[in-house]
Write a structure and sequence with these properties.
Blueprint: H1 2-14, H2 22-25, H3 28-46, H4 51-62, H5 66-74, H6 83-117, H7 128-160, H8 165-191
Helix pairs in contact: 1-3, 1-6, 3-7, 3-8, 5-7, 6-7, 7-8
Length: about 200
């Protein structure tokens, strides 16, 4: 839900900036707020890199082999090809629609993963093979959503600051990776080192 809300906030702040002429239609303050929104969106997309926090707990919970666990962690990589689709949506429908759609898809993938891992979906099979498939599918869904919001987060700042394209692109990209590291450190600080028990899953 937080991801979708952040995406919606970013979209609202930056809806007008859909072409390279957008910078001229916005005040400096509006451009700064839109850039900040893109940074927040990039940070939420970076959370998908924190699989290692709970991977050990998933392995223990469903008795997965290391190979199966690797599939869960990397399945989403096969959907990086959806990034151009997110870019097309941003160009055709604007940042509002793309961010809301991507945020909802990403949140759905993460929420389903959590509910399944915590046993809140008892009707679904829990055996290792089925768990691998279900968790991998959730990973793919999460990646598709992250690709969509990333398409806006990386392209919109270039339109907002056409004379600082390299700088703003690098700035947004840095938040994507940095947020993953910060979340891992925050988890360790508040809850201790990640473990291999179900309590790590929430």
């Amino acid at each position: 839900a937080a991801t979708a809300a952040t995406a919606a906030t970013a979209a609202t702040a930056a809806t007008a900036a859909t072409t390279t002429t957008a910078a001229g239609r916005l005040t400096p303050g509006e451009r700064r707020r839109a850039l900040l929104a893109c940074l927040l969106v990039a940070a939420t997309a970076g959370f998908v890199y924190d699989f290692s926090i709970y991977s050990g707990a998933l392995k223990a919970q469903f008795q997965l082999t290391q190979s199966s666990l690797a599939w869960v962690g990397t399945a989403g990589v096969f959907f990086f090809w959806t990034s151009p689709i997110g870019g097309y949506m941003a160009d055709k429908y604007g940042p509002r629609v793309t961010n809301i759609a991507g945020g909802l898809i990403m949140t759905t993938g993460l929420t389903l993963s959590f509910l399944f891992a915590r046993g809140y979906l008892p009707s679904l099979p829990q055996d290792p093979a089925s768990a691998t498939f279900i968790l991998s599918a959730c990973s793919c869904l999460t990646r598709i959503g992250a690709n969509s919001v990333s398409a806006v987060a990386f392209s919109l700042p270039v339109k907002l600051y056409p004379n600082l394209r390299g700088y703003v692109t690098g700035l947004v990209k840095s938040l994507t990776g940095l947020s993953g590291g910060l979340l891992a450190q925050l988890f360790t600080l508040l809850l201790g080192p990640p473990g291999n028990t179900s309590s790590t899953l929430g």
